[in-house]
Amino acid sequence: MEDDREWMYEGRVVNAMFSNEWGDKVDEFVAFALRHPECVNGGTAIRCPCTLVKCQNKQFLNVETMKVHLYKNGFVPDYYVWIYHGEKQVHQRCSSSVRVSVSETDQMVLDSMNHTTYHRMVCDAAGPEFNPDEEPNAEARNFYDMIRAGDKPVYEGNSRHTQLSAAVRMLEIKCRHKCSQAWFDDMSNFIQELLPQDNLMPLDFYSTKKLVRGLGLPVQVIHCCVNNCMIYWGDDNDLNSCKKCGHARYKQKVRGSGNRLYIRKLKVPYKKMHYFPITPRLQRLYASTATANEMRWHSEHHMEDGKMCHPSDAPAWKHFDGCFPDFSFEVRNVRLGLFADGFQPFGQSGQQYSLWPVVVTPYNLPPDLCMKEFMFLTVLVPGPTNPKGKIDVFLQPLIAELKSLWGVGVQTYDISKRQNFQMRAALMWTINDFPAYSMMSGWSTACMLACPHCMEDSDAFRLIKSGKQSWFDNHRKFLPINHPYRRNTKDFIKNRKVTKQFPGVRSGDEILQDLNNRGLRKVIDVDAEVVNAAISKTCGWNKRSIFWDLPYWREHLLRHNLDVMHIEKNVFDNIFNTVFNIPGKTKDTYKSRDELIKYCRRPQFAQNLVTGKYPDVPFVLNKSQKKEVLEWVKKLRFPDGYASNLGRCVDANKLKMFGMKSHDCHVFMQRLLPIALREFLPNRIWEPLTEISLFFKQLTSSSLTDEELRNLDEQIPVILCNLEKIFPPSFFDSMEHLLVHLAYEARIAGPVHYRWMYPPERYLRKIKHKIMNKAQVEGSISIGYIMDEAAKFASFYFKEGDPTIPLKDKRNEVYLDDIEDDDMFEIFKPPGKAIGAEGKRYLADNEYTAAHLYVLMNCPEVQPFIDLFVTEKRKQFPNLNDEVVNALTEQEFPSWFEKYVCS
Questions:
Q1: Which of 484, 674, 495 is CA-nearest to residue 599?
Q2: 192-197: average pLDDT
Q3: Fewer CB within 10 A of the end CB, N or C, for the chain?
Q4: Confidence band (pLDDT; 50, 70, 90) for 93?
Q5: Count of H helices and E strands in the chain?
Q6: CB 777 within 8 A of CB 355
Q7: Are 111 and 119 in contact (CB under 8 A)?
Q8: Among 428, 406, 388, 380, which residue's Cα sits nearest to residue 275?
Q9: pTM of the predicted model as reported, rounded to 2 decimal places
Q10: Are 535 and 518 in contact (CB under 8 A)?
Q11: Shortest CA distance to 393 belongs to which of 536, 236, 256, 251?
């Protein structure tokens, strides 16, 4: 291909005839474009570079039609580098060019724009389409304004800050500390008083927002039916009333009564949603040097010792790569997770209002950033009512964009490699609590078929006294076929043997076939409500999820995740409330006793017909035992940031704990429960409870191996069966049953902490804090989110080095590098500092011995001596097993070490 491309604009017409030479050059151009599949749509269509407004490298056309356009209209001006047709060499972004058609002032700006970090920030935000060769439009003018502001010192003689840097720093501080606009205005006025009169510091929040508006990303406001039937979008954009319920789209123009009538000048919709397109937000990840390299981490790291530490190590990710090798070939293509949850913006005692944000997060990033730093609010489902199964109505724009990102993709500039590429994206799975699981998947989670893995194979039943659903004796089918529990007719449902086996989880093709055979409708279909209501009476499906519109959805091994966070909390609540016999929450009631006698052979717990009382059960603590446990909990102290103060949850009068958050239950379940109950419960009861605690502890590890997860998958049915031998049938609701599937999901999809609701819940708290105007909840969140995005993007350019490191250390945080004593042992270099005033006390003998042993066993400098001691013991006693060796080490090593060192 010739470097001189002046032919594109010369010689098209010669003597009133189209030139053959020019036509040959066009054929070469077409052949060049077709050799780059990333720029070809559907195998035959490429972007048309003619001068028509609707074309200009924006519209895909087939080759012949595009040629006709070029013959008639010619090439778009200054298209000398074919970046939209596969040419890797691009203009030096935001640099001067010999073909410039901008004003002299703008050219001077462009000539100096590489001087500062903030100039680079403006270029990254503008994207590769910001071409200095074109006359700036209104949007481009924003970037020119910011570039000029980046050249002007905030006042004469100040070399540290420009007008732009001062504005973005103030905006970032406002967002980071959640300050109000009134605070921002007052602080700006105060700063004006401190600076010289001719300073360029923004006067208030409005002027700051106006200056940095180019850093923001788009948001679309879409009108909705007040009854959540439809959104006025796409083909329905011009409707004035709902096509399902007939409700009007706009409020009446005349309001009031009598002589006080008001006429609205504008059309005001009854309801509207906010949609934040994900494409420009994903593109910005490649526009900044802070994140562009990190987006390739998933393909560049390697598993160590077979341990899964990221979803990219899991079989689900690799299976998807195998199904779509063309997608996985480009490692910069984005894998996404989606979560949705509702919250009450006015608190529990305020107005009833249910707001549902839908958020996506990229999984390309490394563990320290994934599910932490980068989450994108995508859909803001308006209140005040819960959308329930109609949430698919509001997901239509997102699904359409995901289909476009999968099929065609979007040209994106990767600043780390200085090249354009065709970015595509795929949604891997959704993350929700159990009620929202039904909203997303279409499988009902509120009936005896609630388990989305067992589906119609569930053995749940309804209890005769309480009328509640029970999953008691629903786990022996997961045991090996020759396990003795299968033949046990005494400890489970009496006179019942279990011979059937769990058939396994259905594939995406099987589920889709079932949906098609049953004739389920998407909720956006006109007749969906009537048809789905009739079908749902005969199965667990209540709709056809809109996610099945994604062409790759059926190939996923896991589409919707069971949320370990909420499952663990519910299991803990059941155990704690039953063991502590909390009134109204315990599962050991007189009805459950009658049901226990009805279904199981445990006559020792039957009602005494003479006294009318029920005997005590061994899994309930008495009053003194409960008091002792709660006093112990009240005195507990944890490392800073590890857990909240559990002592605040103790009610010493009613002998219970209250107000425990999910993370409190998480810590208690995995760390405290076995210790708290060890001295008070018989071993046959304490051991299964401890096994449940260890199950959650191992399941939620940051790295997992396939062997460990297979062991957990084999152990959990036995643990649940042991619990069934202890607790009544009313104890086992759907949450206890779902434990049997958690290890399988972790083995398929990877570590749990990428797929549970802790990060989303924390993110929703941030969104809630953006509500400054409670009369306009959604709009307030939208404005705050856009400003937060701009401030976060700008913060990447505040200092050199890694911009993802927080600007300040966390409280009580100390780095090892800060400790100057090189002779100090590692164990005495803690990554923290003491809280409060120091105190002194003498240790008891047993405390001193335990502290001495802990220091020796955890000091890296002592480890060679421990190895030497173990070697001597094994030579002296060759037949010792590891358990005996560990016991001898704890008993004899301290004295042996003292003699060895002194000798």
A1: 495
A2: 89
A3: C
A4: very low
A5: 30, 21
A6: yes
A7: no
A8: 380
A9: 0.79
A10: yes
A11: 236
What is the chain's percent helix, strand, coil content, to nearest 5? 45, 10, 45
Give the DSSP letter string of 710-732.
Answer: HHHHHHHHHHHHHHHTTS-GGG-
Ramachandran bin of 81, using left for φ above 0, alpha for ψ from -120 to 50, beta for the remaining angles = beta
DSSP 607-657: --TTT------TTS--HHHHHHHHHHHHT----TTTS--GGGGEETTTTEE
Residue 316 Cα to chain centre, angstroms: 17
pLDDT of residue 99: 32
> What is the C-alpha separation between 560 and 92, in angstroms, rounded?
44
Q: Smallest Cα–Cα separation from 655: which of 744, 586, 742, 557?
A: 586
Q: Is the pLDDT of residue 737 over 90?
A: yes
Q: What tokens appear for 41 in the block?
A: 């749509």
Question: Coil, strand or helix: which one is 357?
Answer: strand
List CB contacts of 245: < 8 A, sequence separation 6 or more: 225, 227, 229
Q: Match 């959104």 to its residue by tokens.
A: 231
The 3-state secondary structure of 235-266 reads HHCCCCECCCCCCECECCCEEEECCEEEECCC
Higher pLDDT residue, 349 or 155?
155
Residue appearing with tokens 């164990």: 827
Crossing angle, helix 777-795 and helix 163-176, to 10 degrees? 130
CA quadruple 451, 456, 457, 458: dihedral, nearest 10: 50
Residue 448, Cα to own-chain centre: how many angstroms? 29
Structure tokens at 491: 């400890």
For 547, the token pair is 């996610």
Other CB atoms within 10 Å distance of the CB of residue 544: 24
pLDDT digits (tens, 9 = 90+) for 406-426: 998 998 888 888 888 899 999
- % of the chain beyond a pLDDT of 90: 46
* Tens-place pLDDT, residues 567-624: 999 999 999 999 999 999 999 999 999 999 999 999 999 988 888 899 999 999 999 9
CB under 8 Å to 518, separation ≥6 — which residues? 535, 539, 541
Token pair belonging to 788: 């937060």
- What are residue 419's DSSP bridge partners? 414
| DSSP states of 488-536 | --SSSSTT---------PPPHHHHHHHHHHHT---TTSTTHHHHHHHHT
Question: Which residues have CB under 8 Å from 750's CB, separation 6+?
Answer: 308, 310, 311, 312, 313, 314, 316, 317, 704
